[in-house]
Amino acid sequence: MDGRAMEIQSKRNKKITIKVVPGHFATSHSHVNYYVDMTEIKSKHRMARRAARELAQSYSGTAVDTLVCLEGTRIVGAFLAEELAQAGINKDADLAVITPEINPNNQMLFRDNVQRMLWNKRVLLLVASVTTGKTINRSLECIRYYGGEVVGVSALFSAVEEINGLEINSIFDTGDLQNYNTYSYHDCPLCKDKIKIDAMVNSYGYSKI
Questions:
Q1: Which DSSP symbol is given to 153?
Q2: What is the distance in angstroms between the CA of the first residue and the CA of the last residue of the chain?
């Protein structure tokens, strides 16, 4: 797969890059024709800081108390909190950066010691990738259950522009990937053409089949 990887630069900042691999991939919610590799953004501090700086530009006038980070985005989230606290309405604020626990039933939960960082707080949700929006919807439901108000959603890559009236603020989108498509398991044309799945993919990476 690495031999098929292509590097793509962000339109917002050419120093922010991802690698994409064309093929047939299965996620927990759908099949997609590209694997989007965001390992470097999530792992290397310089690129994570650049991504955070770009995302922060959309929230200079949005009051934020807490960042909820999913899918390995906590490094980006910490830099994003720092950027938000440097200027604008959140200047000098001490923002919380937290991550939910995922139980064996794939349900999100927050332990008692961090629930106070959600109750009556204004929450910015940060995810790595949005394909179908199901993870976002599940996250919104969870945050609201704990009394948080979601004031924004950011993603490193998003295949959708908005969910439940909330605009997705992303570094990369489908305009950066030629002919990117996502399919339900039952309607995947690649499966119907008997094209084998290359790998199972999730926020941690991929496993070849």
A1: E
A2: 11
Per-residue CA distances from 7 to 19, 20, 23, 130, 199 (Å): 4, 7, 15, 19, 19
**φ and ψ at residue 105, rounded to 5 degrees:** -90, 10
Whether 140 and 113 have beta carbons less than 8 Å apart is answered as: no
* Closest alpha carbon to 8 in 26, 22, 24: 22
Three-state SS for 47?
Answer: helix
pLDDT tens-digit map of 142-187: 999 999 999 999 999 999 999 988 999 999 999 998 789 999 888 9
Distance from C-alpha of 40 to C-alpha of 153, rounded to nearest angstrom: 21
Residue 169 to residue 56: CA distance in whole angstroms: 10
For 30, the token pair is 């759908």
Helices (H), 71-123: 74-84, 112-115
Output the pTM of the full model: 0.92
Q: Are 10 and 17 in contact (CB under 8 A)?
A: yes
Q: How far apart are CA 172 and CA 169, in angstroms?
A: 9
Please report, for the chain, how many H helices and E strands are present, in that order. 6, 14
DSSP assignment letter at 192: H
